[in-house]
Amino acid sequence: MSQPLTPPKMKSMKAQGSPIAMVTAYDYPSARLAEEAGVDVLLVGDSLGNVVLGYETTVPVTLEDMIYHTRAVVRGAPRTMIVTDMPFATYRGSKEQTLRNAARLMQEGGAHAVKLEGGAELGDEIALLVSAGIPVIGHLGLTPQSVLQIGGYKVQGRDEAEAARLLADAKALEQAGAVAVVLELVVEPAAAAVSRALSIPTIGIGAGRGCDGQVLVYHDLIRYGSGIRDKRFVKPYADVGETIRSAVSQYVSEVKNGRFPEESHAFQTQAQPQEKPTTKLYGGDPK
């Protein structure tokens, strides 16, 4: 891909039945590797609070955090569409505040689009952003910024009322101008129904096979970290954490035992070249 994906192209991919592959990224090397691997979209998720910054929830993540990490991702993946989460309390306050904060993510961070968690109640804010030229992706189902309010990480859409509310919210987001909707931890039938009802793509994470694309957290996908918890909706494709742990452990052992560094890792002084005698052109022997 020579140019970043655009919202119209995403919509076209849905119409053509071409799945969208999204993954999170939080820094330059992960973004660069993901772009080289061919991902369609990179999400600078506020999940960086959990997997990079060590917070229990995403709530402590600030706008400055998101701008900082978005800049790094943009540098690592210049040919990939970059979507950045608007973190907790940077929207829903006033439309002016929402526009100002979203604009900072675009202007200072370099994001191509922003993502907001919430349903129909965000319609006016989304419409304002869209009218200002800011592409918006919605986020329904489990909304991590509200996890303290909803009482934990629970699967959504299990009963008819929840499923109907999801569908209504998704339609409201599309009506407001959202270019896509992330569905997180939603039962497969409800997610599939939402996907069929929308003309914009749905991106699932723990939402089954009926979505128009999928997203996984980078650290879950490759098991990068310590104490990575297995999740039913995640398929790990590598165990980078164990590889790193083993490599560092071997390094520590070799330093302690004097096996590193070896001669091949050291620099030596070079012998000074001997001064050559000079020959006089006229008279006498060389001195």
Automatic annotation (TrEMBL):
<comment type="similarity">
    <text>Belongs to the PanB family.</text>
</comment>
<feature type="binding site">
    <location>
        <position position="85"/>
    </location>
    <ligand>
        <name>Mg(2+)</name>
    </ligand>
</feature>
<feature type="binding site">
    <location>
        <begin position="46"/>
        <end position="47"/>
    </location>
    <ligand>
        <name>3-methyl-2-oxobutanoate</name>
    </ligand>
</feature>
<feature type="region of interest" description="Disordered">
    <location>
        <begin position="264"/>
        <end position="287"/>
    </location>
</feature>
<dbReference type="InterPro" id="IPR015813">
    <property type="entry name" value="Pyrv/PenolPyrv_kinase-like_dom"/>
</dbReference>
<feature type="binding site">
    <location>
        <position position="117"/>
    </location>
    <ligand>
        <name>Mg(2+)</name>
    </ligand>
</feature>
<comment type="pathway">
    <text>Cofactor biosynthesis; (R)-pantothenate biosynthesis; (R)-pantoate from 3-methyl-2-oxobutanoate: step 1/2.</text>
</comment>
<feature type="binding site">
    <location>
        <position position="115"/>
    </location>
    <ligand>
        <name>3-methyl-2-oxobutanoate</name>
    </ligand>
</feature>
<feature type="active site" description="Proton acceptor">
    <location>
        <position position="184"/>
    </location>
</feature>
<feature type="binding site">
    <location>
        <position position="85"/>
    </location>
    <ligand>
        <name>3-methyl-2-oxobutanoate</name>
    </ligand>
</feature>
<keyword id="KW-0566">Pantothenate biosynthesis</keyword>
<dbReference type="InterPro" id="IPR003700">
    <property type="entry name" value="Pantoate_hydroxy_MeTrfase"/>
</dbReference>
<comment type="function">
    <text>Catalyzes the reversible reaction in which hydroxymethyl group from 5,10-methylenetetrahydrofolate is transferred onto alpha-ketoisovalerate to form ketopantoate.</text>
</comment>
<dbReference type="InterPro" id="IPR040442">
    <property type="entry name" value="Pyrv_kinase-like_dom_sf"/>
</dbReference>
<protein>
    <recommendedName>
        <fullName>3-methyl-2-oxobutanoate hydroxymethyltransferase</fullName>
        <ecNumber>2.1.2.11</ecNumber>
    </recommendedName>
</protein>
<dbReference type="Pfam" id="PF02548">
    <property type="entry name" value="Pantoate_transf"/>
</dbReference>
<dbReference type="GO" id="GO:0003864">
    <property type="term" value="F:3-methyl-2-oxobutanoate hydroxymethyltransferase activity"/>
</dbReference>
<keyword id="KW-0808">Transferase</keyword>
<feature type="compositionally biased region" description="Polar residues">
    <location>
        <begin position="266"/>
        <end position="276"/>
    </location>
</feature>
<feature type="binding site">
    <location>
        <position position="46"/>
    </location>
    <ligand>
        <name>Mg(2+)</name>
    </ligand>
</feature>
<comment type="subunit">
    <text>Homodecamer; pentamer of dimers.</text>
</comment>
<keyword id="KW-0963">Cytoplasm</keyword>
<keyword id="KW-0460">Magnesium</keyword>
<keyword id="KW-0479">Metal-binding</keyword>
